[in-house]
Every structure is written in structure tokens, then in C-alpha cells.
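thread: overnight batch results

M.L. [08:02]
morning all. the overnight job finished for the chain we discussed friday. pasting input first so we're all looking at the same thing
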Amino acid sequence: MDFLKKYSLYTLLVVAVLFTGCDDEEPEPENLPEIITDVMLIFTNVADANDIVEARAQDPDGEGVEELRILDDITLGTDKTYRLTYEIFNNLETPGDNIGNEILDEDDEHQFFFSFSTDAFASPTGNGNIDKADDPINYDDEDDNGFVVGLQTIWTTSSTTLTGGTFTARLQHQPDVKTATSGATDGDTDFDLEFVLNIQ
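M.L. [08:03]
and the structure it wrote out:
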């Protein structure tokens, strides 16, 4: 009888271990793209902090069927230098989740890329670095590895007016991919926004 009790106890222990092993939850996947519902580009005139141009995009359903929609044109003055920064939020949550802070915390995994109407800017020249990563962009920040990020960039407009041009900002999520030479197609795209650009 004692033998049966010991055998039963042993069997119960084995079964308990097996069930415990089956209950282990699978780890959540890392490096998921951000959920972004609201993006604001903020151009601040470096010579006049009261001269601010804001351009918004919004996606009220987050990961749903809708995409980020452009709500504003970008209209800058001629011969002016602006610092471009962002407000980036997931407003599906209450209060909203500041995705800009997450990007800053994970700046070694993110980079902004740009394209714009040719010669819209005196600096940077050209048409941006989405098509060619080493084309000039005036990045004003970098991650701990010394690679550029793009949460802050500097833009000097042309002396020539422009109506109905384009300005595209693309945010790439590049975990384990980002290098000094990674490009606009490396990693996953968090957003790719094409605004109408006017310079007057």
C-alpha cells in the first residue's frame, strides 16, 4: 500500500511539472512598429521663436484600415532657417502615449529620411535622401553610436518661391539594422508622409 501511495505521489508530481511547463506564456515579440495616430511637424524659425509653422497628419483608428491623413500644407518663408521637430502620439490611449519619447529612448533603432521638391531649400541642397541615403540632410541629433536620428533637422529655404511642391518625412524603425549607411528602405516604415510644400 505504501508503494502505491509513493507511486501515486510521484505520478502527480510529474503531471504537475508537465502542466506548469505548458502554462508558460510565449514572450511578446520585440521591436514591433509603433502605433501612431497623430503626427505634427513643427518648423521653428531659428531667428524668431515666435515664427512657427505646424503641419499635421492624423489616423484616428490606429492599426485599423485608415492611413495617416495629411491635414495641413507646409508654408515656409523664403530665405529663412527653420529647425524641424515633431509631436508624435498614439491617442487611442487615454492619456495619449507620447511616441516621440519612445523614439528618443530607442534612437539607435530609428532614423528619419526626407524627400522634397528639387532646390526648394538652399540647405540642404538637392531633393532629399529617401532615394539615396548619403544625399545631404542637416541632421541635428545622433544616437549613442554616433548615427544620425532626425528628431531635429535644420532647413534653410530658397530665395525662390515655390507653390504646390512636396515635402516627405519618412520614419524607419531599424532594430539590429541601423548603421551609418542604412537607407530609407532598411527596416520597417513607421510613417511616410507627403505634404504639400509652399515657400513664399
